[in-house]
Amino acid sequence: MKIKKIVLKGVKSFQDSHSIFFDEESSVFTFSGINGAGKSTILKSAWLVQKAHFQKILGSEDYSESVKEDIFRLLNSESSYIELLIAHESQEASIRLKRNENCYYGGELTYENEGLVKDNWNLEDPRNIFLYIDSSNEFSEETVTYDDINISSNSKQKVIIEAIMKPERLFSGIYRQLVTDWLHDRVIPNKPARLVYYHVAGKLFNSLIPLVNLSNYSGNVKPGEFILLGKARKGRKPISYDVREFSSGEKSLLSTLILLCLPKSVGAIIIDEPENHFHESLLLEFISLLHTLTYKGGVLSWTLANNSNGKEINEDWLEKEFSSHDLHQIIISTHSKTLIYKTFSIGKNYIVDGRIKPLDVGSRMIKSPIGVILC
To answer: Which intervals hold domain ATPase AAA-type core (predicted)?
Structure first.
């Protein structure tokens, strides 16, 4: 499922109606501009429509105040709206989110072809979700004690929903799910193993940061806690440590790759200013890897081609878990000129400065709000 168009009216600095079109032939899109231009607003708008939809079908008040705050923060008045046009296979659907102060979650949704939306964005088997990674370096880190684990209610859908509704809790939610699935497999083994997604994400992670491996789980390192250990190859002797001690970039990378591998498919990975998390070379390698995963076969083809690197994963399990997995789009806000140059060869660049304009590679020199870009 792809985003074809976003329409903003009365959304933060976008007072008049603005339409952003996403080229069907491209999978990587960047938005650049000075601070306050509205590039983050564009990214958050797509995610907020999804968040409001899941709030509507959840029907509970667990996240309703958070949804209301986000709607009131982005939509300036009750005449404001965000409209999302999405396409999946041969069908299209649109969702419009308006501010509604009389609704318990602060919004009102209207649909065209609601069936297509609900086929993908549902509570039982959420797929083609928009994974939103914000620019904050803060990560929620919670301990996972022996008493916290309840394998009888273990469900990957819960962590996917939490990632949609509370992306700031992504790392802690992923961490808890990993430990729960590990313990669940120890008590009641399953085929395919419950942690296939983790082993695939581990190979993706290690391809980008080869000196750091995801090691093993332990209930003996810290009293009363289960932890996931990472292993850094520094010097002759590897050093093991709790992955909660990873750098912000390592945490962001690990969380993103694991959540990419959890649902059956991902519509879009939406990343707000990834340069806040990654140094330049890792950023370019990460986006290049994600771009590779948008090709036909995606995660499955990449993993089969790289399965011999490290511990091999059962190929029948891979086929069963990832044969229908897709990643369709990567949407980024950025100040990185290097990433913008890179995107000319793999996608589309846009400049945000009151209007939203394509950055055309056909020009020899383009003056943009972040400086002069030579093409």
So the answer is: 33-339
According to DSSP, residue 62 is labeled T
- Three-state SS for 221? coil
Phi, psi for 86 (deg, rounded to 5): -120, 155
Burial tier of 175 (Cβ tally within 10 Å: 0-12, 13-18, 19+): buried
Instruction: For residue range 182-226, list pLDDT tens digits in order.
Output: 888 888 888 888 999 999 999 999 999 998 888 777 777 777 777
**Tokens 């994400």 belong to residue:** 201
Q: In the chain, list all ranges with CATH 3.40.50.
A: 1-122+336-375
Which H helix or E strand runs over 345? helix 337-346
Determine the 3-state secondary structure of 127 from DSSP: coil
More confident: 219 or 323: 323
**1-122+336-375: which CATH number, 3.40.720, 2.60.120, 3.40.50, 1.10.10?**
3.40.50
Q: Which of 134, 110, 119, 129 is nearest to 56 (CA)?
A: 110
d(CA 51, CA 66): 10
Instruction: Judge whether 272 and 330 are in contact, CB under 8 Å.
Output: no
Where would I find the H helices in the chain? 39-58, 64-74, 114-120, 156-165, 170-187, 196-208, 248-261, 280-293, 298-305, 315-322, 337-346
For the residues 339-352, what does the mean pLDDT come to? 94
CB 47 within 8 A of CB 97: no
